[in-house]
Amino acid sequence: MRCPYCGVVNQSRVLDTGPDQRGGIRRRRECEVCGKRFSTLERAIIQTPLLIKGNGDREEFDREKLLRGIRIATAKRPISATEIDKMVDHIEQNLQQMGRAEVSSRVVGDMVIEGLKALDLIAYLRYAIVYLGLDNLESVQREIDHMLAGGQPSKKGAGSNKAS
Ligand SMILES: [Zn+2]
Fold this sequence. Notes:
The chain has 5 helices and 6 strands; from the N terminus they run E-E-E-E-E-H-H-E-H-H-H. It is an alpha+beta fold. It binds zinc ion.
């Protein structure tokens, strides 16, 4: 804490502490060096971590961009805009609750995959084809077989443990 008058750092005495109207904590302080009084306000800031892309670039979490990708996957499926909004809210909250400065963008992709799987398997499959990079009919077929067998969707490159 820096004194706004003389600039000395961490040399103030707390005179009193009380709640601020907006949910923060207000402290009345007195600088031990220059004797001036000032108040500080402490408030929690909710921050969404930066996303680290595959090529190492950082980008801000972009709610609109995420919504666009999900809308494409869910086009003409019986999923309401409200459900999609809720899913994106949930993803954003999960990211914030991680309390990290940065996370891999794959974390977001995985959350979308999980969310779509719970909502609609066709939408899930559309998203998975792009996201998991299923670039041939065999791998798409394998994913469908896996879903029909009631298994968890496979992650890219993960070994399958088929029980058949
Ligand atoms: Zn001071």
